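Hi team,

Below is the intake form for UDP-N-acetylmuramoylalanine--D-glutamate ligase from Pseudalkalibacillus berkeleyi. Please confirm the fields before the structure is written into the shared record.

FORM ID: S-0412
PROTEIN: UDP-N-acetylmuramoylalanine--D-glutamate ligase
ORGANISM: Pseudalkalibacillus berkeleyi
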Amino acid sequence: MSRSHELQNKSVLVVGLAKSGSAAAKLLNKHGAKVIVNDKKEFEQNEEAKALHARGIEVHCGGHPLHLLDRQLDFIVKNPGIPYSNPLIHTALEMNIPVYTEVELASYLTDALMIGITGSNGKTTTTTLVGKMLEGGTRPTHIAGNIGTVLSEVADKTNADETIVAELSSFQLMGIDTFKPHIGILLNLFEAHLDYHGTLEDYGKAKARLFKNQTPDDYCIYNAEDEYVEALVQDVKGTKVPFSTKRVLDHGAYVKDGQIFFNNELIISLEDVALPGEHNLENVLSAVAAAKLAGGINEQIIKALKTFGGVKHRLQFVTTHNSVKYYNDSKATNILATQKALAAFKNPVILLAGGLDRGNDFDGLIPYLKNVKAVITFGETAPKLVKTATAAGIKVVQHVDNVEKAVPVADEIAESDDIVLLSPACASWDQYPSFEQRGDMFISAVHKLR
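The structure came back. Fields below:
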């Protein structure tokens, strides 16, 4: 049963606007809370603050003054990006004022079946894939959270007969109290966001909060091949459902003889799965487990696995031209991401890479360049990548001005069954405002080949 009535007359301070803060303020106001909004951007340049002020909501802009804590607050909803070291947030916690993220509001607003997905890598791909697996079922399914639409906003429009698949970050999960997914997935854990969390241990604890309120009637899907993940789920109360790409399990999702199984039931052959790469196989296994536990039907699960080629800019299949496959992995803004992309292919690869580096060299790519027949570089980092490719013994190394010019050069080099892969290993900011625009330029150039 929805607990939205519990928000009535609550005194709530929303700190930090952007998309999640604005949505939280509107929802709290809608459900009868007494809302105060605070954002560091000056009111004159703050369109979100102006819109909330027009609704009659009290707004304070231009900083985070401590006097906002002088009134009797029931709790604070903070934007996930604001660190807990912020003086306003730090002082509020010292005063024992609860500090949540808008994800917590979802637990007040809906009884929908909740599937929560977190991990260092693969969240967006897995969330999207689970959503596609549940399409067309008896329960309307919505995708929300860190992937796009604010979770609490979606929650407010759903009921117990519906399903929400939510991508959740560690920042969001640090600010929950009663929030509970019926099905939770922890994909993996790598060192990331340590500037925010401080240590890998604290980062892992934030991720594991996904399971903190689960009971044995709920499910904890976890990566049985990740030692950090295994340690984090040791004491969860939810029913544990492992997945593994490396061994056959007594239950859960696994690979055997080139086929995917869930709880010993054959689901699909690996050769029929559209998503390439070992790292994506982990995402596939976890998605199969979640979809099956959520009541998904095999026909739709199999259809999704055969047709879903990846999230845009994340090892995304673009098209086949003259028997050559083109993949857009513009999201690969560091060496680790490009290593994973290269490891996904066994066919000869023509690698398009370059952009703005972070002062690093690229020697870490050399062991992954064995299948690479040519490297086409662009951007500020081009000289470093030329050096790396030459050291790896690659015979064809060319430099061009940008991604758009790299594509026709790759087309000239490519032979039947080759892979042309944009996986820059660098940020985009030297030439493009975002990795998304860089990827869009690649896609456009590929389609112009026709």
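SUMMARY LINE: The chain has three domains: 9-100, 103-307, 316-448.

Thanks, M.
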